[in-house]
Model the fold of this input.
Amino acid sequence: MLKHKILSDACANNKLIAFRTEKEEWGETIIGHVKEVTSQRIIINEIDEYGTSIGTTSFKLDSLIDIVTEDKTLKCLEILEKQNKHLSQTKCTTFWGNGYELKDYIVDRIKSRKPTTFFVEDGDTDDTDIIGFVEAIDEKSVLIKMIDLYGENDGKILVPLETITGIRWDSIEDNARWLLNKYHKDN
Done:
């Protein structure tokens, strides 16, 4: 059976896999390293979206659907697994207020060369999160070099200061994108 072969290969080579099961809600994905495969069951060491171990779980082999190997997300998780000691949020800092009030903090983020999350009003009930490097700021706006969840450059955006409702840095998400961004630059 092809499913058993793929899972056995992942086990033998310590590859990350992702899958859903028939009982999981649509969109919920299990990610981890295959620890053991039998004709009936799979045991995996699950990880979260930042590569941190969340325990061992067993599933019926027949319940697995949509098995994914070697995609972009899994490759990024492998990088984060190796670097997850750097993914602490003990230094996470958030300031709420309008962009004019936060201007000095934003200027400091230019010097840091680490990602910052900007909470920006988008006209709806929720704010939009923009994560990236602060490139420049003037009296009315801030230029942000965006990075996506894979750590790749995702263009630049000019955000009016009046639409900014808060900023955050050194969160797990900020640090994960920064580590992935550094990895892409170095490789």
Q: What stands out?
A: The helical segments are 2-12, 72-83, 103-112, 172-186. The chain has a mean pLDDT of 91. DSSP finds four helices and eleven strands in the chain.
